Amino acid sequence: MNKLRLVVNNVAKKNEREKFFIKKELQSILNLYAKMVSNGSWKDYSFTSGIKEVSFNVYQRASEKPVLRILKNLKPKYFNEKYVIKDKNGTILKKSENLNQLINKTSWNKLKIVK
Predict the structure, then answer these.
(1) Residue 69's beta-bridge partner residues?
(2) 36-75: per-residue pLDDT in tens?
(3) For residue 61, is it within any domain?
(4) In b/e form, how buried is each residue of 89-102, taking b as 16+ CB within 10 angstroms?
(5) Range of 36's domain?
(6) How many domains does the chain have?
(7) Is residue 10 part of a domain?
(8) DSSP secondary-structure letter at 45?
(9) What was the pLDDT predicted at 77?
(10) Which of 2, 58, 79, 95 falls between 20 and 30 A from 68, CA-CA?
């Protein structure tokens, strides 16, 4: 007869990485988006997902490139590079290990959106 084993707390499920923003992250990003839309700074948004990162892209108009990107790095090299804000040229403006700190400490009105 085969030996049977009971597997409790399967490790394989814990090793699965998050492949998108979790609910709390998405809620804080969308709250920021609503504030900036009512301010008149942002007009549209989109999501992009890949193997290494997931991003929330912000557009000022219907253009080809997003003017700002809020990225969640799925495989960060350093602990403070989990969440990153980049401009349309790909330059890193801010980075942090906590999304709420990144959103709250960034002065969004002072960020210049280059046309």
Answers:
(1) 57, 86
(2) 999 888 889 999 998 899 999 999 877 678 889 999 998 8
(3) yes
(4) eeeeeebbeebeeb
(5) 18-105
(6) 1
(7) no
(8) E
(9) 87
(10) 79
Tokens 């992009």 sit on residue: 48
- Spell out a b/e string for 37-76, using b for 16 or more CB atoms within 10 Å of the CB, else e: eeeebbeebeeeeeeeebbbbbbbeeeeebbbbbbbbbeb
Non-local (6+) Cβ contacts of 102 within 8 A are: 70, 83, 85, 94, 95, 96
Residue ranges of the alpha helices (H) in the chain? 11-14, 23-39, 99-105
| Inter-CA distances, 5 with 2, 8, 10, 32, 47, Å | 10, 10, 12, 49, 43
Kindly tell me if the per-residue pLDDT of 97 is higher than 60.
Answer: yes
Q: For the whole model, what pTM was predicted?
A: 0.76
CA-CA distance, 4 to 2, in Å (whole number)? 6
- Closest residue by Cα to residue 31 from 88, 111, 103: 103
